[in-house]
Amino acid sequence: MSTKVYIPCDTGALAAGADAVARAVADLVTAHRLDVSVVRNGSRGMFWLEPLVEVETPRGRIAYGPVTANAVASLFDAGFLDGKPHSRCLGPTEDIPYLKRQERLTFARCGIVDPLSLSDYMSHGGYRGLDRALSLKPEAIVEEVANSGLRGRGGAGFPTGIKWRTVLNAAADQKYIVCNADEGDSGTYADRMIMEGDPFVLIEGMTIAGIAVGATSGYIYVRSEYPHAFGTLQRAISIAQESGYLGPNVADSGRSFHLDVRLGAGAYICGEETALLESLEGKRGQIRFKPPLPAIQGLFGKPTVVNNVISLATVPIILDAGAEYYRKFGMGRSRGTLTIQLSGNIKHGGLVEKAFGLTLREAIYDFGGGTASGRPFRAVQVGGPLGAYFPDSLLDTPLDYEIFAAKKGLLGHGGIVVFDDTVDLAKQARFAMEFCAHESCGKCTPCRIGSTRGVEVLDRIIANQDRAKNLALLDDLCELLLDGSLCGLGGLTPLPVLSALRHFPEDFSKLAPPQPARTPLPPEATETQPWR
Amino acid sequence: MPQKGSTWNADRAILRIRELEHLPGALLPILHALQEEFGYIDKAAIPLIADALNISHAEVHGVISFYRDFRDTPSGRHVLKMCRAESCQSMGCDATIQHVEGRLGVKLGETTADASFTVEAVYCLGLCALSPAVMLDGKPYGRVSSEIADFLIDGMQRQK
Ligand SMILES: Cc1cc2nc3c(=O)[nH]c(=O)nc-3n(C[C@H](O)[C@H](O)[C@H](O)COP(=O)(O)O)c2cc1C
Ligand code: SF4
User: Fold this and answer.
1) CA A318 to CA A327: how far, in whole Å?
2) Which of A115, A334, A344, A353 is placed for a possible disulfide with A400 were both Cys, Cβ 3.0 to 4.6 Å?
3) Strand runs (DSSP E) across A94-214, as ranges?
4) Cβ neighbour number for residue A77 with a 10 Å cutoff
């Protein structure tokens, strides 16, 4: 039997040089006529170890990483095909503490299976959720999701079961399931990883949603910055069609569900669900007034479930293992697991799926290992560009929707971006305003014009002109944004701005001229960069 | 892979539009297809699309101008997208961007005089555990210091 070697094809792994490693392995295999088959899997989510190469042995999968193309020959010499020691050997993959301490429910298969092998998917528990759903009445499926406590992972944390119930109860000749794969928040990549590493789980989740609410058509809206995820989904959808898991007769149930994937076009605002629907309809991505809710009048005016990738990809495990099983994880009203994404200036950046309740400190230090630069920690932004900046004194906050809101923060999509002491929070606050101006859909005046004013006001504060007057002006502007915005872009921009001001006032009161440039230096090049 | 050649051809454009016009919400798929074919969306495409979808010229133009992806002039032979969102900021992307702007003599959003490079800002590539990140002609690269950016640009310049 041939030896199986796993080399990820996740975009993150590619960015670290996985293709060059795959070529080097293929060359040696051909040259020595070895009986080896290479699987391009998704990523395990330990990006500081990418490219992470695994080999299947009688002891289980053994990991090596980070592997460079240049190191491949020495791996073969050391006998890595038998899982033998090498300076880059990490031992059995499952025993790596970073992975071992996680609770991988949604990501149970990611990095393990061949993303485009339906048989791999099935032998790792795939489509058991759909099987069970097909044995239930639509109301019972919706109840199961409601009882699991699942809340939308796209940012707003709205209970998924309630949304589905609204669509189920809406009478219409056509309903839709729309998957929000716009993942625009800096610091987040969980959607991308699951689409590239386990696309069938998203397809299964959307199919269950369709059967639950009576929708026969679905769309996945993927941002154009994710060309690899787009390609993987297209292939996975045609495989599911050919195998009878999508189409007029899903798994011989007599139910139909059709799925299509569409590409966004570089607009952050299209992550907001109504702008996304406009964009899918072929229009400018402008926010719609609510009501009507998309659940009543969504895509092409029909009742529509809009859910984030992770929300939908979590549905199969809920149906398979049961609502009770899922809701056992978590704390308070935040049930199940959060897919935390450790990003920015962090030593061990990657995906950590853990029950809600882990503290920020545990995430950043126990998993993340502190800053990448080795300099002292100074700030963390949780929840994307509209999330708050927290200082060290707030690091014991547990990851929980309500507790974060109480501390004037946002869990959002679970992105955690760490900054060391070279960060200038006045600059970050300015960027938040700049981003709002840049991405505004233009419908509300405070967001369209106020944000540009905000940049100017912050520039004057940074330059120490009329400080008191400009700080008061900034407060007014933030209030205007809070009150006068139709959506979260304008409405939440005050969060990063005011949290920076509240927790790091010293950065706003430097005497002009500003201190010497504090731009953090880019990292030293590492040998994991194969193009060197 | 360098960007595609960009000679506008109405017949080819009509073919691509025909392939897609039946889709619900066909406008974005059509615009992506035309941009893939020609590297940009020629003004002459607007009436063709408007006719096919039975919408006004102004509507087509409005959509093209709303989305950052769609360009109305050809890009350079190589497109370098540099992330300047928070995660990459925390790892010093500003310094890398400044370096690249200086070396190529352009600002983000511009194309070099010899049309060899277009440099664009992006806001997140989903590579935030490997910041700073860039994408060069669709290929992702992580931990891109100024030195690595030079290496990537040198590689493309040697190719020509
Ligand atoms: C400015 C803005 C950007 C958003 N971007 C995204 C996004 O990229 N992905 C996402 O899933 N939700 C995003 N949302 C939230 C969506 O509007 C919506 O709440 C979500 O798709 C619902 O799915 P869920 O309940 O499964 O989270 C955004 C919201 C706002 C206001
Ligand atoms: S807040 Fe900004 S992005 Fe949101 S609807 Fe108003 S103008 Fe558009």
Assistant:
1) 9
2) A334
3) 176-181
4) 11
Residues A270 and A396 in one domain: no
> Looking at the structure, do residues A383 and A408 belong to the same domain, yes or no?
yes
B3, part of any domain? no
A525: nearest CB among B32, B138, B147:
B147
Residue A141 phi/psi, 5-degree rounding, is -65, -45
B100 and B40 share a domain? Answer: no
Residue A448, ligand 2, Cβ within 6 A: yes
Domain count, chain A: 4
- The residue among A301, A327, A353 that closes a domain is A327
Q: What is the CATH number of the domain that holds A12?
A: 3.40.30.10
A481 and A447, same structural domain? Answer: yes
Q: Please count the other Cβ atoms lying within 10 Å of the Cβ belonging to residue A304.
A: 30
The residue whose two tokens read 């989903």 is B126
Contact between chains at B96 and A188 (C-beta distance less than 8 A): no
Residue A97 preceded by cis peptide, ω within 30: no
pLDDT tens digits, A29-73: 999 999 999 999 999 999 999 999 999 999 999 999 999 999 999
Using a CB-CB distance cutoff of 8 angstroms, which residues of chain B are in contact with residue A346? 129
The model's pTM is 0.95
Q: Is residue B4 part of a domain?
A: no
* Residues 6+ positions from A513 with CB-CB distance below 8 Å: none
Cα B85 to ligand 2 centre (Å): 20
Structure tokens at A38: 């290479």
Residues of B in contact with A268 (CB under 8 A): 123
Among all bound ligands, the one having the nearest atom to the CA of A441 is 2
A526 has pLDDT over 70: no
Does A451 sit in the ligand 2 pocket, CB within 6 Å? no
Is any atom of ligand 1 closer than 6 Å to the C-beta of A368? no
